[in-house]
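Appendix B. Raw example, untouched.
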Amino acid sequence: MRKKNNKNKHNTPVLPPLGERGLGARGLRLIKGDKTIWAIVAILAVFSFMPVYSASTNLVYVVGSGSTIGYLVKHIVLLIMGFVIIYAVHKIPYRYFSGGSVLMLPIVIVLLVFTLSQGTTIGGSNASRWIPIPFVGVGFQTSTLAGLVLMVYVARYLARNKEKDINFKESLLQLWLPVAVILVLILPANFSTTAIIFTMIIVVTFIGGYPLKYISYILGIGIIGLSFFVLIAKAFPDAMPHRVNTWESRIESFFSDDDEEFYQVEKSKIAIATGGPFGLGPGKSVQKNFLPQSSSDFIYAIIVEEYGLLGALLIVFIYFLLLFRVFIVIRKTTTIFGILLVIGVGCPIVFQATINMAVATNLFPVTGQTLPLISSGGTSIWTTCFALGMILSVSSSTEETEEDILDDNPLDILHETL
């Protein structure tokens, strides 16, 4: 067969179409899925550089550790690795996530137990939520990984039982027992994450067709279980020192002005009020020198102080644009599991961002939740990126069928992986 010559009859080389030229065009062809979501992630990541660099002066000059350049470089490296995670995960057919969640459940349970017994505190936080990763200098927050795995597992259960009459007793063992075990292991160190995960599970189960009557039973059991946990913690304070007291103080400080939590909120409100319409300018925040956790939990206040109301509204718009694109992906998805997966891993990102901004503006009690992709942090950035990779995997898939997903076998997935 004669090889095709890429020239015309005048022996002039024929150039490829304009959209196919250059490294940028080749790079765009490598990424799949919703391009707007890719753009949103990139915008949030690049925007985060200056606020993290500015707010880290609190850690350098007040806490007395590291350097501002060091914290910025660490943040950039975490984000670059996060983009690698997004790219790798979005190339995986999303049906593999269904069986993968079953394989990951026992692993995250072991990690959570280890965290409770060996966890450490990082950056001045008073909760044992992290496992230090050796030689890396980054803390691994196991609860974020556990929440992600749990949401995928719940989506799997609901998709597999969509056409069946759900028996409540059977669902207690198959669905709610793993949920309860993981939430009980997260609860002692991180009430806010437990509440977010439980709330999103209830939303997903409702959308997934789980009987409303049974959901009311679960809510009642959850309230009773939380009350029992608080009573146990009060009766045996040495087992979980200060945790219930921390929850109480945060709620009480939301309605009063006489403790340390109020100090954080007060400095946050001063930062927001100082910002005005257009802010003081990048790097010119004053309250970053007085506001604890200014580069993580309260970074939104620093953003408003430096970039003003305009910057604050821009951040809100970007997160709700992300939510809108999540709904677009849901609308285009053809499988029940895909729909529930995107809801379960996508909505918590925007929910967490909303809570973080509400805390900074004193609309919600202090929770310790970071601003996704903007706050400095450790593996929480990677977990968010993994969730975004899953969403992009769903949005890029046109070949998955309900039968492929419902017939999945976790052991087959393990075999293919090995």
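End of appendix B.
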